[in-house]
Design brief:
By secondary structure, this protein is an alpha/beta fold. It folds into 2 domains: 161 residues, 3-Layer(aba) Sandwich (Rossmann fold), CATH 3.40.50.720; 95 residues, UDP-galactose 4-epimerase, domain 1 (Alpha-Beta Complex), CATH 3.90.25.10. 43% of the residues lie in helices and 17% in strands. The chain has 13 helices and 11 strands. The strands form 3 sheets. It has a 7-stranded parallel beta sheet, sandwiched between helices. Strands 7-11 form a two-stranded parallel ribbon. The N and C termini lie far apart (55 Å).
Length: 294
């Protein structure tokens, strides 16, 4: 009988790719969404969509009933540990066998970012839950560059407060495929494992700009800016202050060399090299291309 996999954060970047990666596999897919609007598209794809809110423990039992495996992704924010706690508690009460959890690179009680410190709390709780567990800790997503697509499209440049940081950035599609691999394997195979996921090379944003330029057939430039300028831009776009502060902490950590490394975890899990920044640029070139004029 197929196992039932509950995917949380189902409309987000990684979970959307995970649902694609699991389509056609011998599992029953169930997705947790906060409202019916997000459920409609999933149901059209044959995914069982149930409504619930990780911030409301009372809403969760129906979503977890009959589930064997949970993909646990909680939104970044000050309530992240509470959301994770609610999910773990619902999983335990429902008799779930395994949790595969999306954490953050370098999650630890002394991490230089509030996100890393909060993820460390939830990682420890998951490990102590009595369930089988696996934790994935990806580096900076290449898909974060899509946030700069409008600026690149309009000006041929993008601005980040990362100085000359070099990062082993990873494609979110590879993260999703690693999650799918773990979820499709025997529950004991990856129990107790923590995988730090990276791309194949550590690259600078000048190198990223070069690969984007090659894919677009026109120059693209990286323009380092200060923390204050980037924070003002984020707040101007409606980003909450807590998130803006968290992103600034990550930028400072990466600028200090904190993300300048790679691992072999993606290749080990998937049996192929991870996608590199050139792959990402080619596959997403349309998002960065100049807007067509009317």
């Amino acid at each position: 009988m197929p196992r039932t996999v509950l995917v949380t954060g189902a409309t987000g970047t990684v979970s959307t790719e995970l649902l694609k990666a699991l389509e056609g596999a011998d599992v029953r897919l169930r997705a947790l969404v906060r409202g019916e609007k997000g459920a409609e598209g999933l149901r059209r794809r044959g995914v069982e969509a149930v409504t619930g809110d990780l911030g409301d423990a009372r809403s969760l039992p129906p979503a977890f009933e009959g589930v064997q495996d949970v993909w646990l992704l909680v939104p970044n924010g000050p309530r992240a540990p509470e959301n994770s706690m609610n999910a773990v508690w619902a999983a335990r009460r429902a008799g779930v066998e395994r949790i595969v959890r999306l954490s953050a690179v370098g999650a630890a009680h002394d991490a230089p970012t509030r996100s890393g410190r909060l993820h460390a709390l939830s990682d420890r709780e998951t490990e102590a839950s009595g369930l089988r567990w696996t934790v994935l800790r990806p580096l900076w997503f290449m898909q974060n560059l899509l946030n700069e697509a409008a600026e690149i499209s309009a000006t041929g440049a993008f601005s980040l407060n990362m100085a000359s940081a070099r990062l082993g950035m990873v494609d979110a599609r590879d993260v999703a495929e690693c999650a799918a691999r773990v979820l499709l394997d025997d529950p004991d195979r990856h129990h107790g494992a923590t995988y730090t996921l990276s791309g194949p090379h550590s690259v600078t944003f000048d190198e990223v700009a070069g690969r984007l330029g090659e894919a677009l057939g026109r120059p693209v430039a990286y323009r380092p800016v200060g923390d204050g300028a980037k924070r003002a831009a984020l707040l101007g776009h409606g980003v909450p202050e807590w998130i803006a502060d968290m992103l600034e902490e990550y930028a400072q950590a990466y600028a200090s060399g904190w993300g300048d490394f790679t691992t072999g975890a993606v290749a080990d899990l998937l049996g192929r090299p991870p996608r590199d920044i050139a792959d990402f640029a080619r596959d997403h070139a349309a998002a960065f291309a100049p807007a067509a004029r009317a």
